[in-house]
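Collaborator request, handled under Task 6.
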Amino acid sequence: MRRLALGLLLALLIGGAYLLAFGSRHLEPRINTLAHAAPYAASARATQLHQRLIVADLHADTLLWSRDLLERASYGHVDVPRLIQGNVAVQVFAAPTKTPRGLNYERNPANSDMLTALLVLQRWPPATWTSLTERALYQARKLREAAARSNGALVLIESASGLDRYLARHQQERDTVGGVLAIEGLHALEGKLSQLDALYEAGYRMMGLTHFFDNEVGGSAHGIEKGGLTEFGRSVVRRMEELRITVDLAHASPTVINDVLEISSRPVIVSHTGVKGTCAGTRNLSDEHVRRIARSGGVIGIGFWGGPVCGIEPASIARAIRHTVGVAGVDHVALGSDFDGATRTAFDASGLARLTEALLAEGFSEGEIHKIMGMNQLRLLRQALPPN
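Structure tokens returned to the collaborator:
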């Protein structure tokens, strides 16, 4: 009996060591999936146009995973080699810090977290196991350190002047990617306004107020109460405007969207979403909210997975973009892939020419496609980022 017990203990220890060493490598391919494997073919016209674009995407959760950003992976959606192959000039890297168990679009309490086990499995620093702020700071360090190791292939963008310098260089050196840091949900503040400044110093320039549950800032579209901005939330938005951090309304409740639009003096974004006009859903925007966000000078990033566009093929994304352009105008629509966000997509970052092809098929002009695929995003960044 004792020998059996020792054998079981040894098996558990070996299994635990295996999970710590290899578990996340086997886990992520089941979470960030593809309907079609690379390489991705597009028509000659679409391919030639795509290579002339300056492409920018407003949302990818790649920093959550243990892959090296500088190495091409055989799974997931984003890394620097695939971004370069897809002609992506600027990628916004978002940092999730908490995800509730039983995740769904309709109703999630805030009293559980699935990420802790993943972070332990991926051997993140122990400080991140219990602190949401530390999780955000660690993901910022990951991007900064990757940029430092990249020999200039990856550039962290923190200011408008830095964006202009990078884009001038990118015109001559297309095998480069600019990265912008964002946060997915301000529960990462842990209820402390002072943490906003710490996260700004770490490099964060966009911040989503909520994620899949209500927090101290306000209600989520997927929360229990789905309320508006709290008094703390109003203080957060005011301080974000002082620091020139862009407010991201992805996942926000309709009441939070209204509250922010009433008090905000700067453009807002919705980094990754859909619109109810083509896909009814809890997280998707009404036409009225689309119009109001456009009037703020903001942009709306259309997602690439099934939840926001009721399909994952490029035609579904293009159809949602067409409706949004019809409501808001072509200057206020953008890409918000949600690559690596526990999503299933039709292509990875290397296959974005397929979306260019779908936009052509939807009847967009080449000038309109230039705006949708990147120029709108870059205009907003140049306006919203701190000048220096």
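The cover message to the collaborator said: "The domain at 31-384 is CATH 3.20.20.140 (TIM Barrel). The first helix runs from residue 2 to 27. Please let us know whether this matches your experimental observations."
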